[in-house]
Amino acid sequence: MKIKVKWALLTMIFTIATVLTGCEPLLVLDPKGPQAKTQADDIMLSILLMSGIVIVVLAILVFVLIKYRASNQKDDYEPPHIEGSALVEAICIGIPVVIVIFLSFVSVKSNYEVEATPAAYEDTEPLIVYASTSNWKWHFSYPEEDIETVNYLYIPAGRAIEFKLYSYGPITSFWIPQLGGQKYAMADMVTTLHLAADNPGEFMGRNANFSGAGFAKNTFEVTAMSQADFDEWVEEVHETATPLTEDKFEELLEPGHLGRSTYTGTHLEFSPAPEHNHGSTESEVDHSEHENHDSNHSDEESDHAHH
Amino acid sequence: MDFFDRFAVPHPSFLIYASMVGIGLTMIAIVLGITYFKKWGYLWREWITTVDHKRIGIMYLLVALLMLFRGGVDAVMMRYQLSMPDNTFLDSQHYNEVFTTHGIVMILFMAMPFITFFFNYLIPLQIGARDVAFPRLNALSFWLFFMGMGLFNISFIVGGSPDAGWTSYFPLANNEFSPSVGTNYYMIAIQIAGLGTMISGINFITTILKMRAPGMKLMKMPMFTWSAFIANVIVVFAFPVLTVLLALGTMDRLFGTNFFTTDNGGMDMLWANLFWVWGHPEVYILILPAFGLYSEIIATFARRNLYGYKSMVVSMVVISVFSFLVWTHHFFTMGQGAFTNSIFSITTMAIAIPTGVKIFNWLFTLWKGKIIFTTPMLYSMLFIPLFTLGGVTGVMLAMSAADYQYHNTMFLVAHFHNVIIPGVVYAMIAGLTFYWPKMFGFMLNERIGKWTAWLMSVGFVLAFIPMYITGLDGQARRMYTYSESTGFSMLNMVSFIGAGIMAISFALLVYNIYYSIRYASRDIGNDPWDARSLEWATHTPVPEYNFAITPQVASTQAFWDAKKNGHELFKGKIEKIHMPNNSGWPFILGCIFFVFGFAMVFSIWPLAIVTLIGILGCLVYRSFEKDHGRYISVEEIEETEAKLRGAKK
Hints:
The structure holds 2 protein chains of 2 kinds.
Chain A: H1 2-23, H2 34-67, H3 86-114, E1 127-134, E2 137-142, E3 147-150, E4 152-156, E5 161-167, E6 172-176, E7 180-185, E8 191-195, E9 201-207, E10 219-225, H4 227-240, E11 242-243, H5 246-253, E12 261-264, H6 282-301
Chain B: H1 2-5, H2 14-36, H3 40-48, H4 53-82, H5 92-126, H6 135-154, H7 182-210, H8 223-255, H9 268-302, H10 309-322, H11 337-366, H12 375-398, H13 400-406, H14 410-440, H15 446-472, H16 489-519, H17 558-564, E1 577-579, H18 585-601, H19 605-624, E2 630-632, H20 634-648
Antiparallel strand pairs in B: 1-2
Helix pairs in contact in B: 4-5, 4-6, 4-16, 5-7, 5-9, 5-14, 6-7, 6-18, 7-8, 7-18, 8-9, 8-10, 9-11, 9-14, 10-11, 11-12, 12-14, 12-15, 14-15, 15-16, 18-19
């Protein structure tokens, strides 16, 4: 009777899971970029492996519970005293060790993949986007294109994107589930997240880290488009949008929610990203200063300088 | 009026006013009730001033059950809020307060006192001691914990609850983004309760190392005592970090220092690091004693000795060491790079190995056993598959590249509830059912107990399995609402139904206590479960001095070997017993701490200074106080023993 309940329960879980996954693929398991693909593959691999472990444990449990329950045994049966055997313990340690070594290998390999420019787009020159949060908005600055958007993000598909993340307030986390996992944006340093979209499409993006009263609606829309469409959009912005002034930016930083808006120029000129790299090596500091210099340079020259 | 304004709740609502009235009426009812039944004297003499580890344990238990109720109400409110898209039951501010207090209450004021109850009640009995090493310090631990709990719980009717999450990451938790006194409560109430926990950690370590019965070598201790020993070692290493962390946080909030600010040399990430340097070992402080309880219960009802005693001990030691080496996995996404993440990814996965050893040892304990399905055993058997599920999702989270997708989502929420509920909560209820007859002399009803266990498990599965799915679908944790278009609504409704079923199962647990008080047989003897370790060798109810004659131990399952293999536990004759005196000072010191905490929360400096002097005064007084305890005479012991033997028959 109890076993039946357990199986009924398990069947129910599996039904719920299949029905739901059948309806519409879950965002994280429906990757649209190389980084999200790496992560989805790791997730599926670990789900399969872990299901195996759960099934083995469950099978052993059900087996011993049926075989050795008191009602299935003679009244005068006295269970033996067993201290434990070195061989059995070695197997119980050995198999998990093998599994952990295997998963460690996968994990380390993926770590280096997601922390680098996506391998498929290594030959493209990465687009650099500064993504910063203020309560409870997203500001996207394109230093090379010299434009800035609020709460929406246009990116070219088929090209590596390098996000520089920081915050004008609490710690937030930049997350576009279908393009790749998240990373924190903090007020006193800049973190880097490498993403890319394989094809044009629209994606949900949000702040995933709790940041106060307006957190739930701290979202943004992502549109990936062809490089040509992207260039066209940049040109259009330069023709139609108003410049972002320091006063206007201060106004944007006020706590609250805003719709989409678009500006020429970026706030990096008067409110630069906190790129002073806590505790990093000298060469990295040099590198970031160099980068800063370059982006300032390109801003001053108001043409698309390369570094 | 400015002075009084700050005591008002900044975001009042009907629910909060209703709870104010409810709390007020309950308090009045309790005070009137005690006065009417003339129980003030009894309460003071027998409970408030007690230094008896068993009574202190039972007081911890009462607090734990009360807080289970409060945290549970928080949980159901959250699940209801999220059961429908764009629900307006709670607004964002209230939801934030509710999930913050739910986390703190459940971890620090429910799970911690629950395990401390088991530490208090069981450790001295399992090692054949008369009390803990420092009984009066033990009372102080309880009262500090109690006052911290009280201070924390008044926050939602006086001044406002904390709302920055139970992790309270800076800069969100600093004055700029959390201006209400809520986070002051967090810093100070947890500090006071944490001092109590740290003191009891030292107390239990000393007790276990110095007060074991003759013959009980370390490797002959019952498994629960081993788990308690290791957990308390972790307490002593981890809680000072919390103390320092909260002290620095308090100074940032109250005195404008810059430890965790984002400029002037402050470092907000330092908070996250220190928090988890304490916070990760903290979860092992909860789970190891739970493992200890399962070991006792499974061995008892498999009617076999625990398989692989040595590897059980070694695995716990390994877990305790590793618990300090994995904290970074709570923020793989902070940008520390692939190399650091790889190291912490591997150390985290490595913890699965000793944990797996424990699971297999329990399975092998069942092997060749003679398994009896009592309520505690049923919880243990539900624990094994459900906890395994939680454990393997932990391994999934440990893969740091994939964690970029799990982090801050409902997947993570599902995972930690999946280890804490079947791991810790089931163990607490199983242990409570198992030791109930030892404490109160009657058993809880088995039929209702089994219904509770099954209902709780069905509720658990319905409440938390859907979260794995919505997490992978992009539902971030701590969102107070979501729109229809996200498609989260159906699974969140299932989750709410599950939470409702769990709530019913807890109501059933309370009903079971009521039912058993009324109808259960009192004629159950000293050993109703046919158990194995020393705590069952004394009378039920346990006399003040625990054992009339100090037992002599020769094996890991002393009582079982006394019953089946003719070991003699009680050699020699009764001698007079030295016991500690009751004292009201721990309670008084606790009260002063409460007022001090309150003054600090609201920055009422004169009061804070006066109470601080009071605290120091109590310490000085205690240093010069002469109290040599008292002796229970041989005649008195013999009389008690005769009475208890008679009562048993």
